[in-house]
Amino acid sequence: MKTKWILPLVLVGILLAACSLEPAALTVMVHDSFAISTDVMAEFENANNVKVNFLLSGDAGSMLNKAVLTKGAPIADVLYGVDNTFLSRALSEGIFEAYDSPLLEQIPDQFELDTGHQALPVDFGDVCINFDTQYFPDKGLPIPATLDDLTKPEYKGLLVVENPATSSPGLAFLLATIAEYGTDGYQAYWQQLKENNVVVVNDWNTAYYTNFSGSSGKGSQPMVVSYGTSPAAEIIFADPKPDKAPTASLVGKNMCFRQIEFVGILKGSKKQALAEKFVDFMLSKHFQEDIPLNMFVFPANETAQVPAEFTKFVQVPEQPAALSTDQISANREQWIEAWRALMLQ
């Protein structure tokens, strides 16, 4: 009588085994500029029997708004891409669970802006003014060395910037000028730029690919607010590749603003252990070394190597502009509105 149960029991065992092999799902909220190699992600997924789903959520500001609005019932387990211009808001809203990753030992202290380890640094990059390296010698003009130089008559109409209300690099450059001239002096500086015919556009794509002469060669402005890694990108994506980058960066004191991007586990995630593993993976050397050629920023992990193009063609500022996250959070909207009132009317 007992033997008739053997076959059903075997089938149940097979079904249970199959179910146990079904991968778990982990959702990671990211900004639209996120990119990573497929084989790198496959390594994490295979090692942990998980399928990672990336939820593209607009720019950093839009992404954070979504996370805040859904913090009672998070739509993701992990959030990557909030930067130091929005960090204090993320922390004050309490959207993250603290996690003291062992990989933080490999991250320099200068990047750890949240000592409570709710937001862990992943990468950094500098927003700088890029310039057309051929333009200035052709015109017999010296390359500007300071922010003050940009207000001189010889550079009239030669700089294009982005609206800080609609552009992340535009906001970063506005913050650089506030760091240099203070809250009492930055508007006077922008008035000088306005009088010197600075060109304002809404987004980076327009500024870089339409107005800037250094990339397409068709624009009228030989200087553009862009990224410190843009000269390396000019080499990497060129076909055929030139020996020299057609662009370079102005990296004088406070001419660049350093952006640091963070990852955090969203409070309320039901997959805390798996989320912690993913955070560790993002901070690991393998993931970090894949960042530069995908997102064109530097890895925060000091053991990670960067590609040769970054070493050869990227100028890294010795004294980038800096403002505290609390100061930025408390004044960001006020500064933007003051800029708009001055520059767009």
Concise synopsis of the structure shown:
The protein is 39% helix and 18% strand. It is α/β, with parallel strands linked by helices and 345 residues long.
CATH C-level category of the largest domain: Alpha Beta
Largest sheet: 11 strands, mixed
Q: Quickly count the domains.
A: 2
- Unreliable spans: 9-19
**C-alpha Rg, in Å?**
24 Å
Amount of helix: 25-40%
Instruction: Determine the mean pLDDT.
Output: 92
Which descriptor suits the 3D outline?
A: globular
Please count the helical segments: 14
**What is the CATH-assigned architecture of the largest domain?**
3-Layer(aba) Sandwich
Distance between the termini: 91 Å
Order of helices and strands: HEHEHEHEEHEHHEHEHEEHHHEHH
